[in-house]
Amino acid sequence: MGNAFNARQSDRTSSVHRAGRGVSTVARVHQKIAEDPKGRPRPRPATPARVEAEGLNPAHLGSDFEDFLKEEGLFETVQVLAVKKVIAYKLVELMRQEHLTKDALAKRMRTSRAALDRLLDPANPSVTLATLGKAACALKRTLRVELS
Fold first, then answer.
1. Residue 43 falls inside a structural domain
2. What secondary structure does DSSP assign to 105-135, as a single string?
3. Could you report how far apart the first and last alpha carbons of the chain are, in Å?
4. Fewer C-beta neighbours within 10 Å, C or N terminus of the chain?
5. Per-residue pLDDT reduced to its tens digit, 47-78
C-alpha cells in the first residue's frame, strides 16, 4: 500500500467501471435518498408568477431535450454522434472480450492502425459500412444495420 504503484492503482476508477464487464452491463451508481432530506432544495412548481420572476420561457416549460435540439437544428448531428459513440464503445468491449490489441485488430481487418483509430474515435462520425463490415468479420460477428 505504501509503494508508488499501489498509490496510482488506488486513484483509478477503472476497476469500478469494469466490475460488470463479464455480463456486459454498465456499472451503476446508486445513491440512497433520505426520507426527510433536511436543507435540500425541493423542486417548486412552475407557477405564472415564478415564470415571470425567474425569466423562464413559458414555451419551453414541459418540453423535452429532443424538441430543443430539433428547434436548434442540432438533433440529427447529435443523434449521429450518439450512434457513433455506441458503435465505438461496442467495438472496444468486443476487443477486450477477445483480448485483442488495436494492432492485432487492424492486422485482422487488413487496414492501417490509423483507420482503426478513426473507427474507434467516438467524436469522428465518418465511418463506412465497409470498415464496419471488416471490423465485424475480424471480431467474428455479424453486422446488422437498421433504419427506423
1. no
2. HHHHHTS-HHHHHHHH-TT-----HHHHHHH
3. 53
4. C
5. 666 666 666 666 666 668 888 888 888 888 99
